[in-house]
Amino acid sequence: MNAIAHLLRSCEVLRGAAILAAAGFFALLSPVAHADHFYASQITARTLGTSLQTGFQDTNDILGGPSGNPGGSTHVLNLGVGGQITLGFNTADATRTITNGAGADFIVFENAFYANSDTTKSFAELVFVEVSSNGTDFARFPTLSLTPSGVGGFGTINPANVSGFAGVHEVLANVNTNSIDPFDPELAGGDAFDLSTLGSNTLVLGGQVDLNAIRYVRLIDVLGDGTVLDSSNNPIYDPTGFGSGGSDIDSVAVIHGVSVTPEPGVSTVALTGIGWALSRRKRKFNNIDTEAQRKQYCPLLFSVPPRLGD
Asked: Which residues are CB-contacts of 251 (< 8 A; sequence separation ≥ 6)?
């Protein structure tokens, strides 16, 4: 076999090696998904309500784990009356979604507390809870309010008379001061939500909201003076008037979540494979007469950075 024929054959082998190495590179780039627990990590939108409590406006207080405390916590973000906030869960190295698992899927920790430790008397600033897959279409959890009449600014409601709201139950878990599992809806306190409750929602049925790929949770403070209605058109009452500045959100904890991260170290693996293939073929060309012939018949070889073949 003459030198040129040898070079052409070597180029074909080289081309195949490069293609295989590149294919391995892209295969290794495939993201890795795994089940996970996590907290809200982003504020993606916010509308301030009225009567805003200026002392509770540190946005960091709503991100991360709960800070439950008997009688209420100061590590909260106040929404103001009628205010709302949309939370996301992504981090710099992971895309995170809530999925529809068995039972409760996430917990909203507001700052409700029981008057004199009486669990039938909750200082509950009620919150509508909505979820979205795309950040545009939000499905609201159905609500029911059977509180019979208006409640003053420092009044309480019976948690047994409401359902589907956040802001009803006292927060018990505190990631800084106790060992209560904040992802256990039976122990952590707060208000747990099961995505399967939304199975008949029109946005879910229409495909706009995917219950296995929830990327956003929106929390909306309820004006509890009876002018806002629940899902059955009952008036909603909660502490309203002087002394009430709307809901104070502590945290959102995801029980059934998925984190998607890139496979680490893929560049080193793939480039090492390509470099080995190229250097092996390049050593075969020492008997070719001139560098010009090599460039003419095998330009791929000379497009590779020298460090890979040296």
From this structure: 39, 40, 62, 63, 64, 65, 66, 67, 109, 182, 190
